[in-house]
Amino acid sequence: MREGELLKAIDEIYEIEELKHRGYHLHAVAIHQGHANAGHYWAYVRKGVDDDRWEKFNDQRVESAAWSDIEAEAVGGTRTTSAYFLLYVSSAAEPWLFADDCTASKFLAEDVRQLVFADNEALETQIEHYRCTQNEDARGNADVYEVPNEDRGSGFSPVPPPLNDNEQMLSATPTEAVRNC
Description:
Elements: H1 3-13, H2 17-20, E1 24-35, E2 38-48, E3 51-58, E4 61-65, H3 67-75, E5 81-90, H4 94-97, H5 110-133, H6 166-171, H7 174-180
Antiparallel strand pairs: 1-2, 1-5, 2-3, 3-4
């Protein structure tokens, strides 16, 4: 297909009647900086349905972002950044997807939900085990667990109680779940 034919085909997509009735809104942009064999990723996520504010999720930092920042980084300019993928949300799904009473677990099939529960329990045990070997409790308070020095870092420690409830973890809204992590 030649360039002219391709451009014509792209333009004709906008004239398909069925597609005119479906609205989609940009919800997230993942940015890649670097090259194909190495680089760094971060994401911009729109805060809500009727909210034009964006947040930048970059490793351990979350900060407010302006649309102009997203545009500049998505195109790259003189740097090696580009939009790695764009996430659009159907306008028909937005009312229930972003509802305050909507929980993350609502979107999981039962078998997947059980796998998530099991994985979360295993992770909680590993985290608590690590904290125990570091002689800290779940809140970072030192000297809570009595672990003999010879056992620290050896992989041995008493089985700790779960860090928190899986249902609580999955009962947060998607936005709360991200904020609480």
